[in-house]
Amino acid sequence: MQNITYNFQNKSAIVTGGASGIGFQITKSFLESGAKVSVWDYSDAALAQAKSELSAFASQLHFTKVDVGSRESCAQAAGSVPWAVDILVNNAGITRDKSFAKMTGEEWDAVIGTNLTGLFNVTKSLFEKFNANSSHRRIVNISSVVALYGNFGQTNYVAAKAGVIGLTKTWAKEFARKGFTVNAIAPGFIRTAMTQAMPKEALEQMAARVPAQRLGETEDIANAVLFLASEQASYINGHTLSVDAGLVIG
Q1: Higher-confidence residue: 73 or 214?
Q2: For residue 5, with 0-12 CB atoms within 10 Å meaning exposed, 13-18 middle and 19 or more buried, which class applies?
Q3: Which of 134, 162, 190, 225 has the most neighbouring CB atoms within 10 Å?
Q4: Looking at residue 105, what is its pLDDT?
Q5: Which CATH number is 135's domain given?
Q6: Of the residues 6, 42, 149, 157, which is catalytic?
């Protein structure tokens, strides 16, 4: 069996939340496949760390600090991108987990503002920056498996990520005539620095819920993003791809 390889030479991508976790792996995978990448992230520390770790790709990289919940911040970031855009990966997200009874209005607003309104702000700011001469225009939105079945203590996060799926379907219909495909990915339980900091027992309980009995890797999500951004996926539009080893059917 031949491994799938992607060639994104002469393509450019923007990855929000692209300096750490899943976003960092998406950034790295695009760079390794030849793309130029603009990394949008809110964390100065994460941006500095990513710049150091990806120094071998310096000529393909652009970094900017962005608060995706702010339309002004997104507009400024869009103006700083030094090239036309072919691919946008809306990955930035936060959590403020708490049961509904204990959740504050501020916690609701913060998550909706970043995880849902942020997609609107980013995409709106970049829409005219997409390469007008390209028929290869891709938007990939990162949702979550919890958007498909709900999750205790995550009213705000689940609502936002479910909204991402609805937004994806609508944009797929509206943008297709302009040469776009718009798809979403719903990651399951993925091994990141955040999950690795959890107690061993909690990780084992998470893995036990997955039919494959293990957590996913950030590469699993990055591979799915690259596929949906590729020429091979040109007839896939408005789809939500679950990358969860069967968790959603459990």
Answers
A1: 73
A2: exposed
A3: 225
A4: 98
A5: 3.40.50.720
A6: 157
